């Protein structure tokens, strides 16, 4: 490991891409790849907790994914239920939260999500946030609707942020996308304005602790300026 633990990103967001292609290349159904992806979630959750990451946000199912074949959607919903049975949350002292248009989900899935949130509410080592039936444009649109309904007159970045589903956590420091694609896919568009982006070719089922370390090492080699000059940032560091 060539990174410093004191510079671990506090919030890592991940676009978990490549499950289907991973399975297809092995002559398996796409659902087989999603099952393997759940195992990766367990490994990465444990490792992020060990490293001291405070928030891990996982893009699990987008609103656009509702256009996929019905059998694949059904398999994914089943995996959501089975993965929430995992004691990884209690074992690692991880709190579970979910964001997205949950009304579109099957009733049993909605109930299990609520139960898991309640069951893990007091865990405080890390918060795992699952983006389920989520898209950033939907989220921002909903925030605007709320502001209009409230008759808000003084709209600022702060008031918009407070009306987003992610208002309970800081913006991501690092966004990782696996699977070789170089796009954001409607994920946390507002929140990643100043996030560092990391893309890798590794399919999500093969994304292990070593791959996570590579992403963190890349993050630590960058200078986050937030619009300031390099000289200004260096001066602030000296202080």
Keywords:
6-stranded parallel β-sheet; 239 residues; 6 strands; alpha/beta
Your description of this structure?
Strand 3 (94-99), helix 5 and strand 4 (126-134) form a beta-alpha-beta unit. This protein starts with 10 loop residues before the first strand and ends with a helix. With 239 residues, it is an alpha/beta fold. It has helices spanning 19-24, 30-51, 70-84, 88-91, 107-119, 136-149, 157-162, 209-220, 230-238; strands spanning 11-15, 55-62, 94-99, 126-134, 174-177, 196-199. Helix 2 (30-51) runs parallel beside helix 3 and helix 3 (70-84) packs parallel to helix 5. A 6-stranded parallel beta sheet has the order 3-4-2-1-5-6, sandwiched between helices. Helix content is 42%, strand content 15%.
User: In percent, how much strand structure appears in the residues?
Assistant: 15-25%
Shape: globular
Number of contiguous helices:
9
Tell me the span between the first and last alpha carbons: 28 Å
**Helix and strand sequence:** EHHEHHEHEHHEEHH
Quick one: biggest sheet? 6 strands, parallel
Number of strands: 6
Strand pairing plus helix content: what structural class?
Answer: alpha/beta
Radius of gyration: 18 Å
Instruction: Detail the poorly predicted runs.
Output: none
Widest beta sheet: strand line-up: 3-4-2-1-5-6
């Amino acid at each position: 490991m060539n990174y410093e633990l004191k510079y671990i990103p506090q919030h890592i967001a991940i676009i978990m891409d490549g499950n289907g292609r991973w399975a297809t290349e092995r002559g398996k159904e796409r659902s087989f790849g999603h099952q393997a992806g759940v195992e990766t979630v367990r490994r990465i959750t444990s490792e992020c907790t060990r490293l001291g990451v405070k928030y891990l946000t996982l893009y699990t199912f987008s609103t656009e994914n509702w256009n996929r074949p019905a059998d694949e959607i059904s398999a994914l919903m089943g995996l959501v239920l089975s993965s929430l049975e995992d004691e990884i949350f209690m074992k690692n002292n991880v709190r579970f939260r979910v964001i997205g248009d949950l009304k579109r989900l099957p009733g049993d899935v909605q109930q299990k999500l609520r139960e898991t949130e309640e069951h893990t509410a007091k865990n405080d080592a890390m918060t795992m946030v699952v983006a389920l039936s989520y898209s950033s444009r939907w989220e921002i649109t909903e925030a605007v609707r709320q502001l209009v309904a409230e008759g808000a007159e003084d709209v600022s970045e702060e008031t918009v942020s407070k009306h987003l589903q992610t208002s309970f956590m800081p913006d991501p420091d690092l966004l990782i996308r696996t699977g070789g694609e170089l796009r954001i896919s409607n994920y946390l568009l507002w929140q990643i304005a100043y996030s560092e982006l990391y893309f890798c070719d590794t399919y999500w089922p093969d994304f292990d602790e070593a791959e996570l370390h590579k992403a963190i090492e890349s993050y630590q080699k960058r200078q986050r300026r937030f619009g300031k000059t390099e000289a200004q940032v260096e001066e602030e560091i000296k202080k």
